[in-house]
Amino acid sequence: MMTSPLSARSALAAAIAGATCLAAPGLAGADELRWRSCATAETAPGLQCSSLRVPLDWARPGGPRVRLAIARLPARDQRRRIGPLLVNPGGPGGSAVEALAEGLFTPRATMGALRERFDLIGVDPRGVGGSTRLRCGPALRRLGVPPVDLSDAAFAAFRKANAAAGRECRTRSGRLFDHVDSATAARDLDAVRHALGARRISWLGLSYGSLLGEDYAARYPRRVRAMVLDGAVDRARPTERALIEEATAQGRAFAAFGAWCAATSGCALHGQDVGAVVDRLTSVPGGVPNTAIGRPATGAEISYGLNEGLQMPEVWPLVAEVLARADGQRGPADAAGIVRREPAVDPLYRTVTCADLDSGIASAADARRLLGRVRAVAPHTWRYTEWWDVMTGCSGWPVARRDRSTAGRISGVDRVLVVGNATDPSTPLPWARGLSRRIAGSRLLIFDGVGHTGLLHSRCVQRQQARFLVTRALPPRGAVCRA
For a designed S-S bond to 163, which of 51, 255, 292, 396 qualifies (C-beta 3.0 to 4.6 A apart)? Predict the structure, then answer.
């Protein structure tokens, strides 16, 4: 996820906290937004902030309410303004307000037209950023990365600790804990549409933002003008199949990293077997010394750090350097670069994914079988994949599965562009293909490259997305953006 400078975050938080909305009955719980400037030296000029109160439980619209933080960059060309374009950077847990403030969705050379023609809207989903937040305690922070010790006793202990951490979150967060799933977030987005006074919205969602857009399109197909789902997540994917597809994709991304290193003399591991280096680091008894966290980093934690690095090829030189340092090739072994902070579980990520998806793990035997399958397709990176984190993390997590009615075929949406990367270690290309097949009339754009999402790695993808959102003209069938 993209992060803001601390000064920008503080200023945004203060501005959002001061923003108000008019309370009135109806769909949104407020039918007018009051905007105030919240721009700082670190944010996009012209940034405005507001907030909206919506029902905590949409089944009880007259009950308690929660607050959504909203940011806006008004269209520069108001005479040719198309309408609102809502954006989401991913997660679950990413702040759309911060991403909008940082200019993530408007690279000037390729996507500047979005800034000219749309009111860009960032909505922090409930539980995120400036919206009403989930509150958890130290029990969750102690969980760290998912286990690879899958003995019956160890897995039972993890499941017990996971359940206790979830109960602590529920105690601290109250009823919000049971109302932060994606189906509820989609209803919140329609309340925002209503409050904006828009008949239809356009949408640009990355990674989890694609799943949130998918849910919105399934529920409100006629309220979508144009939609981009980049780094696509296919809700209909069986959990175990998704696990193996993602592990396979992560293994391919690691192979691409190794090939880059072999061909690049400036790589700190040039001329070495990169897979052997990683295997050595992740199997050190007792872990690798780490001055950043004050204790040795485990093999699973090193795999977690490597997973982050594989998603952004532009940082691969740094990834190679920190692996070399962890391996003792630049002085005393120190994994501080690859594991920069104490791994922690994001409470919203855990709660939303567990409400949205099946764990697929009922016992230690299930976990051992699945991890064996992961190891077979990703022999160097098997100790951590995001989907493994989801599946193990939902084992024992005390949240009920929510509405899954959006997992079927989606029809009635006028224009949808699905984007998938050939070598995306987090959202594999088969997910984009599957989602595109499920959305009637959608078009698939493939980025033939490495990295997570197309927008973050390809100017060609950026241009295609901007052109589509402005004109609603889909790219030709079989369109591919080359790396």
Answer: 396
